[in-house]
Structures are given as C-alpha cells and as structure tokens.
What we know:
Blueprint: H1 3-14, E1 20-22, H2 28-41, H3 74-83, H4 99-116, E2 120-122, E3 127-132, E4 138-143, E5 148-150, E6 154-156, H5 163-171, E7 176-178, E8 181-190, H6 191-199, H7 206-212, E9 220-223, E10 228-236, E11 240-243, E12 253-256, E13 265-274, H8 285-304, E14 310-314, H9 315-320, E15 337-339, H10 342-345, H11 348-364, E16 374-379, E17 386-388, E18 403-405, H12 416-434
Helix pairs in contact: 1-12
Amino acid sequence: MGPAGLFAALRFADYGIPSILLERGDPASERMKKIAAFWRYGKLDEESNVCYGEGGAGLYSDGKLMTRVKSPYIQYVMNRLVDFGAPPETAYRKDPHLGSNKIRTLITKISSYLKEKQCQLHYRTKVVDILFDENKKATGVRTEDGRTFHSPHIILATGHSADDIYKLMEEKNVACSAKPFSVGVRMEHPRKLINSIQFGSFAENEKSRDILGAAKYRLSYFNKESERGTYSFCMCPGGYVLSSGTQKNGLVVNGMSNYAHNSPWSNAALVVSVNLQEQKSDLFAGLKYQRSIEEKCFEYSKQVATGREIPAMSLLDFLEGKVSARQLPSSSCPSQTIKAPLHELFEKEVVLHLQEALLTFNRQMKGIIGKEGLLLAPETRTSSPLSILRHQETLESTSHTGLYPCGEGAGHAGGITSAAVDGIKVAMSILEKSV
C-alpha cells in the first residue's frame, strides 16, 4: 500500500466511496520493528520489510517529493499531505522534502482517515491470484489465506519488488513488456565534504550554513559510443545508506534522510542504464539480471561475514580496480560494511561506465574522488524492469479490462509524487466510468 494505492483510496474517499486495500505486510508501527531487527541482526521478514508493508518502499526512501511529471494533481497531492501534518511549505516549495521520520507519521494518519471513511484495510493479506471471467474482465482477487474479494475494478499498485505479481501476470497472459532500468552502487561522503564542494566558503559560515542546509547534487554522464547513461539518483543529503532487500539470499541498498538532514554523511545512488529489451524471448531477463547481482553480493557477504553486512569499497580502490590495504571510510549504514571487490561483483561494462563517469563527475564536483569516498553495493531497484501495459485513455490493462496497472511496480511511475499522481489518475478514470 504505497503512495499510488493510498492516494487512489483517498480520491475515492473524497467522493464518499469506500474501498478495500489489501496490504502484503504490516502496519507502519509493526513494520518498523521488523525492519529494525533486520538492520541490527539480519533477521529478514520476507513479508514485512523495507519494501513490503504500509507506505511501501517510499516510507524508507527519504520522503523526497521532487518529480519531473507534469500533472494538475501534483498540487492536490501536496495539499493533502499538508492536511495530514506535512510542513506548510510542502504546498508551495519546489521539490519539498519530508524526510523518512515525517512521512511515516503521515501514512498512519492517512490510514486512520481512510478507516473513518469506511475504507477497509487488510494487513498481512497477500494477493496470490487475480480473477477474470471468460471475456478477460476482472472480477476479483484471491488471497493467500483463501479469501476472495470481488470487484469489477482491480487497481494493481504493488511496488516494483513484488516478483510474484510479475509471474502471475505472465500466467494470466496479461500484456507486459520489458523496460530499461539501472543498476550500480551507493556513493557516500561526509556531509561536510559535499557542503564544502557545493557551497565553497559559505559552508564554513554558520549563518550561511543554517540557511543553505545540507548540499545536494545531481550528476549525469552519457557515453555516446555505448549509448548508455550513468547518473546519480535519489540523492540523500545528511542521510543514511540502508539495507533494503526482500529476499533472504540477496542484498540491496537504498538511501534515506530525515527532515533535518542531520546525519554526518550524504549519499546518492550512482547507476548505469541497462536495456535488455532485445531479449524478447525472456520477459524476466531484467529481473533475473537484478537478482543475480543481489545474490552475488549476498554470497560474498556471507562468505566473509554473516550475510547482513553490506559489501563496500573505497572509491579510490574502485577506480584502481583492486582491493588495497586502505581502510574503509566510515559509513552511515546501520547494517555495517565489509571490504569487498565491487569491481568483481558487477559485469565489466557496468564497472567501466561507473569508473568513467566518476572521473567526469570529479571534474564537475572537484573533490568527490578522495580517501573519504565510499561505494556500497548493490543499488539495483531504482525502477521496475517490467511494464504492465495499459491503455493511454482508460488506464486499464491492454489485454484485460477492469485491471488497472498503477504506480512504480507496473512501470508507470518513478517516485513518491509520480506514484501518488498515478493513483489519482486511475481513481479518476474509474470514477468517470462509474458515474
């Protein structure tokens, strides 16, 4: 029940129409306990973790509300967040940031509001089948516990880590296609260093520092020969690098920061574009590619530690393509780090593109290549490797009516705000059809 599902339900509630939300994981409060146990002890609950549960992955992904989509619903999203307790500036600032600490409190308030409006929320309720009639019209869903929920409108807003839903789509012959995605690492530096690079002498001035806050950056590089881009993504100033896997035999990292941006570190994903669309015979080629990297990193961590520690490498070592005697720089990661040959855990082309891009980025931000730079791996789930196809006007599946692929997991959004907007678009399409 990430942003897409929640905001679709909110739109229904605005019109006095109750809805049913089926959530794979736990409510936010219970979910946080499971996540804390995972970060501290490596105890992963495969049904309630950073990606599965109330609020979805967005609840632990920094709370950034920046988006590149153009939609009249963006202001509605911001206004509603303010209604539920977001800072007032959320409604008028460009690219507002809530922080993971604030967005968690908002999610529970939204859930409570939906319940007051007679919406049903079912936690720990995993959907295992979608029901269609002989005309490929959606009629309901069946859950793991054997219950059946009937409706002529099924909004599929699962998030992009629910592999089993993709496999269900294939079994049901729901139209899907492979799409480009990206893989790479998290790059982490001391916050003071990034502030100094971006703000210069102002970073040392107390008054200026209070006004400017923690420095951000956005970097991109395009290799014309390979036609592949390398870019920073989900930059978390004054943030943390977090383990965010969903499978016991795989590791994944993500970034977050609280509203105050007060961690001593700043980090960002540094990823290379991957396009496996030419492998048309295997719809899951991208998914397999992502998971192979995650499993390789887990196996290395398990081999030299316990399997919960995050493989990491100094930025200097990575550029030299060797593990030296250098100590790993300190990190914000609560799962701890282990020294690892990251250049051997990714395919050669990805490594070469990362190395080339880093040299270019150092010319744009002089100083990011140095002894304090750290790379943590793997960052593999920047977006879905699949798209569940839908009609441009009705937003229904192109192959099955009554099924509405929605949000990041369906390949139609790329962040908290765009997912929320997509949920509203789907809700409005259903309302227009029903009136």
